[in-house]
Amino acid sequence: MKNLERKERITMQKGGSFLTEPITIDAIFTPEDFTEEHQMIAEMTSEFVQKKVLPHLAEMENHQFTITKQLMEEAGELGLLSSDIPEAYGGLGLDKISTAVISEMMSVAGGFSVTHGAHIGIGSLPIVLFGNKAQKEKYLPALASGKKIASYALTEPTAGSDALSVKTKAVLNEAGTHYRLTGEKQWITNSGIADIFIVYAKVDQEYFTAFIVEKEFSGVSVGKEEKKLGIKSSSTCAVRFDQVEIPIENVLGEVGKGHLIALNILNIGRYKLGLGAIGASKEALKKTIAYTKQRIQFSTPIAHFPLTLEKYATMASYIYAAESTVYRTAGMLSEAMDELSDDVEMKVMAKIINEYVIECSLNKIFASEVLDMVVDECVQLHGGNGFMEDYDIVRMYRDSRINRIFEGTNEINRLMIPPTLAKKCLKGELPILSLAAMTEKEMLSYLPDEPDGKPLSQEKMLLSNARKITYLLFGMMLRQYKQQLEEQQEIMVNLTNLINAVFAMDSCIIRTEKAMIKGKNDEMQKLLYTEIYCQEAFQQVILEATDTLAYMLSGDELRLSLSVLKKYTRFTPKPIIRSKREAAKCILKAGGYQV
């Protein structure tokens, strides 16, 4: 019966369906659904980071990577490298929520968390998800234990966001036994300590293909460590391949199908990056509250100044929103993937992961930008000390910046979402165009409902209207630009921002409503966060929608559309200053992010 229910729920939760379908609260995973096992994994990971990693972080920042390798083996002994690896291949085979918890808890470890994340994610997952039995048996046990470190080699000097344009080439020898690999990869995480590289090249300069390459293969060479702005405690080098002989057994997946691996592994990487950004945001806030409590100015700890409290509440509200979306995605991936067998066909696995490409990209965009906002405000609250290397917040500020570039820049991720939605509409997977047509019919006669005063009633109204605005603009954009969509980058970005606001508002509301129904006495703080985030996000919706209409229309048509927009954006604002003051009390008392 459980398996049947699981299949039904997977069918219901289509990727992108948060835009079009109401969903019951029990179908959404939230952090409040953690089991005792999840809590134990979180505590174990946190203890490892605090006791083992952080005492050596300064040494790793100075590129003493022998310590990194030792710590990775210790992590392997604890099972912190093998949650995604099946038991048959030396792993623990845990559910995707457990892996999510590990990723979030590990994120406070600075650049070491990047080493760990690259190893368990984009480094090992290609073999876990797309390798054949022999490849899994050969490589996964050593990756699970940390005796070997994995790396993902895709980016090249001329192929960054345009990942499929790689110049690295592979040519089959006359005997048909090996491919000769030639090319160069740059900015490769873990490259200085890696034993195994997942390398992408074009066979016969045409067929994009993934290979498993061992560092010991003749012709593999690693360049010097890059001088980076941040994440200095992770290894980043160029990797060169000079006529490297790769056994045909080391082709990962199929020749010419490397894009299925590369793009879907990046999808998982984006979602996991979101998890890491959540953990880092919470840690930055925690450290900053501790600092502001002991920093006295005008005979008062600056933690008690109203503007400081306002910053606490804003940061925590946005963390709550990002956390809600990321763990919602974790739940969808867990339901879709946890009970799959180890020998799932490549196309089937790719299809399952690709189903949630929109959610994974939104996780990456939103959580990385929340982190940047948080660390920036935390530096500000440290005052002059926030500019001094003696304080951890300085390293966190530097480390955070890469997240908007990693795994496809935020700009590339934003530009990808509207065309992906358009394809889903054309395939009949999402009814956005029919919803847009319905909204157009009602818009002139539409009279907005007034909230009934119950908790979340206004937030639900804002969410409903944000959806309608998104439908209208999406339909208008497709009609007006059709085949020229790629030339309209600005409005595609605006539309993605609307879509992100809908996803985050919806996730906050469902999570808070779930807490209210369960009645665990923590719903008031969640309600405050939801009120704060939804009202501020809706103000952004108004700006993005107005900007988009002003670009696409003019004259009377524009004036009519703006008058319709006013109907959908009319609301009586809540006193958010008061809400933030109230929320900040609990945050200050707890000494950190509090739900």
Could you characterize the architecture of this molecule?
With 595 residues, the protein is of the alpha+beta class. Among the domains are: 152-252, Butyryl-CoA Dehydrogenase, subunit A, domain 2; 259-411, Butyryl-CoA Dehydrogenase, subunit A, domain 3 (Up-down Bundle). The chain has 20 helices and 10 strands. Strands 1, 2, 3, 4, 5, 6, 7 and 8 form an 8-stranded mixed beta sheet that branches. The protein has a two-stranded antiparallel sheet with strand order 9-10. A hairpin with a 2-residue loop joins strand 9 (296-297) and strand 10. Helix 15 packs across helix 16 (457-481).
Task: Summarize this structure briefly.
The protein is an alpha+beta fold and 595 residues long. It is built from 20 helices and ten strands. Strands 1, 2, 3, 4, 5, 6, 7 and 8 form an eight-stranded mixed beta sheet that branches. The protein has a two-stranded antiparallel sheet with strand order 9-10.
List the main descriptive attributes of the protein structure presented here.
595 residues, alpha+beta, Butyryl-CoA Dehydrogenase, subunit A, domain 2, Butyryl-CoA Dehydrogenase, subunit A, domain 3, eight-stranded mixed sheet, two-stranded antiparallel sheet, 10 strands, 58% helix, globular, disordered N terminus
Indicate the topology.
Blueprint: H1 2-12, H2 36-53, H3 57-61, H4 65-77, H5 96-106, H6 111-123, H7 125-130, H8 133-145, E1 150-153, E2 169-172, E3 178-189, E4 196-203, E5 207-214, E6 220-222, E7 236-247, E8 251-252, H9 258-294, E9 296-297, E10 300-301, H10 306-337, H11 346-354, H12 357-382, H13 392-400, H14 410-426, H15 432-442, H16 457-481, H17 489-518, H18 523-552, H19 555-569, H20 576-590
